[in-house]
Every structure is written in C-alpha cells, then in structure tokens.
Amino acid sequence: MKGEYLFQVRSKRIRFSFRIHRNITVIKGDSATGKTTLLTMMYEYLRSGRESGYSVNTEADYFVYLRDEVGRDWTEVLFPMSNKIIFIEENNNFIFSKEFAEFVKRSGNYFVFVNRAPLRMLPYSIHEVYEIAIDGQHADLQESWHTLRELYSNFPMPEYNRMENVLTEDSNSGFEFFSSVFWKSMVTSAGGNSNIPEKIDKTGDGDLLVIADGAAFGAIMEDCIETLENHDNKRITLWLPESFEYLILKSGIISTPELDMILESIPDYADSKQYISWEQFFTDLLIHLTKDTLFPYSKHHLGKYYMTGMCKQQVIKEFPEAIRENLL
Prior knowledge:
The protein is an alpha/beta fold. 30% of the residues lie in helices and 21% in strands. The protein is built from eleven helices and 13 strands. It has helices at residues 35-48, 74-78, 98-107, 173-181, 196-202, 221-229, 244-251, 257-264, 278-290, 309-316, 321-327; strands spanning 5-10, 14-20, 24-28, 55-57, 62-65, 85-88, 110-114, 129-138, 143-150, 165-168, 186-189, 208-211, 236-239. The strands form two sheets. Strands 4-1-2-9-8-3-7-6-5 form a nine-stranded mixed beta sheet, with helices on one face.
C-alpha cells in the first residue's frame, strides 16, 4: 500500500480532520481526549453509514478493530485484509505480540494504533506519533474541530551543546561518516536504536549529542525522554533525521529527476508491503540510484567518495544550523 490519505470524520457537534502518511501511525493521549470517540464514530459509520449519524470522508478503504468478536480472534478478522488502513483500539494486547508484528510487516496494510504504551516490536517514525488536539470551536457551526498534533515535534535540539560526546545508532556507514565529521568529539556507536537509552547512561562526562534514525525511533522516544530527565549534570540532546541515507539523498550529491520526484512525494513510493519503515526505503533507494555508478553505496562500509571533502560538506548542509555552527 502506498500514498497519503485524508480523513474527515464528522457528527453534528464534532469534526476530526487528519492525514495518514505512513504505514504505522500511533495516537496517544490521556483518557477523555477523543481517541475512543473517533474510533466509535468511524466504526458506526462502517456498520450503518449515514444512518449512524456520522460521516467519514476518505479515499482510503479502512477498517476499525475495537475488540475480538465472539468466536473470532484478531487473526481471523485481520489476516485476510490487504490495502486497508486498519485502526485498532487500545486494550487489544495482541498488538504487542511477535505474531502480530510479523503480520504488520508482511500484510501491506497501513495501521493506526490508538494506544498509550509504546509498540516496541514495530519500527515507526517519531513524526507519526500524535495526540488529539482541539483546533477551536467554530461558533457558526457549533462544532468542535479536532486534529492530530505531533507529540515529539519539539524534542530538544542541540543549541549550546558542546558535543564533547556523540552517540550514533549506526555502527557501519553512518558511524564512519559521523566519526569523520565529529573528529573533535568522542564518537561511539550504540549498535542499534534500542540500545541508545542504556548507552546514554554509560556515556562519560561532557555534553552529549545523540544521532538516530527518526524514521524508526518512535517506540524508543519515551525511554529516551525518561533517560534524559535523569541527567541534569550535562546537556544531552537528540538529533533524529529520517536516516543517514536520507541525508545523503537530500544533500544533492546524487541528482536525478527520479530522485526529485520521489523526495517530493515519498508516501507515493514507499510501499508498505516491501518496507516496514522509511528507513529501509531510503537505504534501498540510495543503493539503487548508485549501483551502476563509480560510487555505489553500501550500508556496511562507506566508500571513499562519500568521505571526500565535497561530499561531507554537502551532507553537512542538511544538519541543523546549531550543529553546523559547532563544527566550525
């Protein structure tokens, strides 16, 4: 499944408007914030259409899973589905199982989880974790408008961080590149995103910059935030670009009409049946675009071309300004 989908869900008094961009979306938030109301409205519209008193406008084929039906469990209901956006209510504990994670990875569907607990079995983007926000009361219509607001859009950025230590998720090509760029710092690898909270605790004295792939970091964010709150003796900040490969693709090192089109509309190209996260998509895309060139990309070892001064400067332009200034 590909594409970006707009949903407009409405009753006489409440309206929800939001877009689904990727194959995994998480809606969090406390009780009484509208999560259950949204799913109930969508579910009742599927059952009864306009007679439900609700309306759902979307071009997507969707399904709402509230709970197991009598005599049927989730596998019987969901396994036959394809090319749907499946909304799943919290308190369905099967979403934490390995079997369900494997289904998500191979099914080709999009999934929207209304769930407060992180889904550690699944790689999802920090940009697809939301809370429901009230967008204001429209007096002329007497409607309460609700939207989805990114929960982690304002995570700490590296202003005033001296970057004496740099911790990277990657242990291969990305680590080689960042070790070269941050040559004044002590650069270490976490050996995977799930190890980052523990590695933060073990990092020595001095300010720390953590670099990880935001495209698959959503489930790790809460652990990271909790870890950061336990360190008040030094500055620890996060930089979470989509992925190292995305930085290269955005940098202009490779310039083709095909790449320009893809970067302008990534949801139309990143097939959820083939890629569980955009991190994988960007890696395959970079390998594909460079395989017949003099500078083929490998995730395991970074070629000399990407370590030249020209290439490094192009990629560094994609860094946040605060990091670039600290590199001078």
